[in-house]
Specification:
The protein is α+β, with helices and mostly antiparallel strands and 88 residues long. The chain has one helix and five strands; from the N terminus they run ββββαβ. The strands form two sheets. A three-stranded antiparallel β-sheet has the order 1-2-3, with no helix packed on it. Strands 4-5 form a two-stranded antiparallel sheet.
């Protein structure tokens, strides 16, 4: 696996800040961010996804909250990342 740094939360303090990397082999995004609180998880479970699909996160998954201003670091179909704190 070869990870490429995409960006970190703007004006971040020194530790514990949302960060995004991309696996250059698969294109998967690796995201460090805040865990969603219980109220957010309950609301996501109430909204659901597709009929018949469980809304419980299995032990190998978690629900995170990604700040809206981190969306700038998610790659677009043309391969560009628009963030000012990007690793490109």
């Amino acid at each position: 696996m070869a990870l490429r740094f995409l960006g970190i939360w703007p004006n971040t303090p020194d530790d514990g800040s949302p960060t995004i990397w991309m696996d250059e082999t698969t294109g998967d995004l690796i995201i460090q961010s805040w865990k969603a609180d219980a109220a957010t998880i309950r609301q996501a479970q109430e909204v659901g996804s597709v009929p018949g699909h469980s809304t419980d996160a299995p032990d190998h998954e978690t629900v995170i909250r990604l700040p809206a201003d981190m969306l700038q670091f998610i790659p677009r179909p043309n391969g560009e990342v628009n963030g000012v704190n990007s690793g490109t």
